[in-house]
Design a protein that fits this description.
Elements (H helix, E strand, L loop, with lengths): L2 E5 L53 H6 L3 E5 L8 H5 L5 E4 L9 H5 L6 E4 L9 H7 L2 E4 L5 H16 L2 H8 L7 H5 L9 E5 L3 H10 L5 E5 L6 H7 L1 E4 L2 H7 L2 E4 L13 H5 L5 E5 L8 H10 L2 E6 L30 H20 L8 E4 L2 E2 L12
Parallel strand pairs: 1-2, 1-3, 3-4, 4-5, 6-7, 6-9, 7-8, 9-10, 10-11
Antiparallel strand pairs: 5-12, 12-13
Helix pairs in contact: 5-8
């Protein structure tokens, strides 16, 4: 029998919800490009309920315990005596989330001789040290595409939030109890007519481009692998061969590339300085793609008119993280891919992966990052995202 260790984010401050704002969510059976949504044999949860927190348990407990397996769920993942470190040595499977990552470092993997499967409930598995996973003979899988559209919608929302100066205007009528129209609009613009670009045109980046086209903007993108000519023509896209060319051409830049050595710290003082004064950056990919303090300096100097993001490093960030208090920002915790609709899909995908692994059946190829200690290959390039 297997021990499955799930590291999920904590329950709501007010307790696990007794009810929800909506009675149902739309049923999504497939994604753009033809991939089907997760197809587990069954589910033991109600779609639209809060599944990604500790009490939600991704809807896995009944399924696993009915088969005789052990499920341990915790949000305690930091420190020498964390529940993660106490439970890991005899765990066969670890389930984690990009929003509350259980960092599977070389040391942790070495301390877990039975560990054979790491599942990301969502997309993005950079919290797993892949060389160590390969050497350990592990399989690493994620629920590809489960929350890609969720993230793309969030990115478009943050673009509009920055450009229209939504956060300060909202603050005037809520926190400050004022009206103050002049203050609210003194940094507000229209997105219409601007040049908007995405770095990375994988599933999320392409979805952002499609959602921005109706805003009558000029669209740009950068990716090592160019999109098909018919796609470029359909969306009237301008391709850029490198990040600097893209950054210097746009008013708004949305980041959708994975984190790896070539993208880490990519947006430093020099690259941000090459952008138009008063540009905006939205980052729903990974925090380390931008230099933390360079962003703060650019907002203070006016080089950037705004920065919005959904990703931090580390996660969760310390209380004194400068992005919490820097000006002209619209930061959120890492929630873009964890809407209640997305949770239904990545919970179902996690169960599908577990069903296959426990039954000795192949896991669907699009979910595999590392298979049994070898690179599975997701088709991701240096500027695309598998999710």
């Amino acid at each position: 029998m297997a021990k499955i260790l799930a590291v999920l984010y904590p329950d709501p401050v007010g307790g696990y919800p007794p009810d929800y704002a909506r009675d149902e969510i739309p049923t999504i059976t497939g994604y753009p490009g033809g991939q089907t949504a997760p197809t587990p044999q069954a589910i033991d949860f109600t779609p639209g309920h809060l599944l990604g927190c500790v009490s939600g348990e991704l809807g896995l407990r009944r399924f696993l315990e009915d088969r005789g397996h052990t499920l341990v769920v915790t949000s305690d993942k930091e420190g020498a005596d964390s529940a993660l470190d106490r439970e890991l040595p005899d765990a066969d499977v670890v389930v984690s989330q990009p929003f509350w990552p259980a960092y599977l470092t070389p040391e942790r993997i070495a301390a877990a001789p039975r560990l054979r499967l790491a599942i990301t409930a969502g997309i993005g598995s950079d919290h797993v040290d892949l060389p160590s996973a390969i050497g350990h003979g592990m399989t690493v899988a994620e629920v590809t595409f489960s929350n890609s559209i969720s993230v793309s919608e969030h990115a478009v929302m943050q673009i509009l939030t920055l450009v229209h100066n939504y956060m300060p205007a909202h603050e005037w009528v809520t926190t400050k109890k004022g009206w103050n129209i002049a203050d609210s609009v003194s940094r507000a613009y229209d997105l219409e007519g601007m040049d908007v670009g995405v770095l990375g045109s994988g599933r999320i980046g392409k979805a952002v481009l499609r959602r921005l086209k109706p805003f009558d903007v000029t669209l740009h993108y950068c990716d090592v692998h160019r999109l098909a000519e018919e796609v470029e023509e359909e969306m009237e896209l301008t391709w850029h061969p490198d990040a600097r060319s893209l950054a210097s051409a746009v008013d708004v830049l949305s980041i959708h590339t994975p984190l790896h050595p070539q993208t880490q710290n990519l947006f430093d003082d020099e690259l941000i300085g090459a952008m138009k004064r008063g540009s905006y950056i939205v980052n729903t990919a990974r925090a380390l793609i931008v230099n933390r303090d360079a962003v703060v300096r650019a907002l203070d100097s006016g080089q950037l008119a705004g920065y919005a993001g959904d990703v931090w490093y580390p996660q969760p960030p310390p209380p004194d993280h400068p992005w919490r208090t820097m000006p002209y920002q619209a930061m959120t915790p890492h929630v873009s891919g964890s809407t209640l609709a997305a949770q239904a899909r990545y919970a179902a995908g996690t169960r599908e992966i577990l069903e296959c692994w426990l039954d000795g059946r192949p896991i669907r190829p699009e979910y595999l990052i590392v298979e049994g200690g070898g690179l599975a290959g997701t088709g991701a390039s240096s500027y695309t995202v598998a999710g």
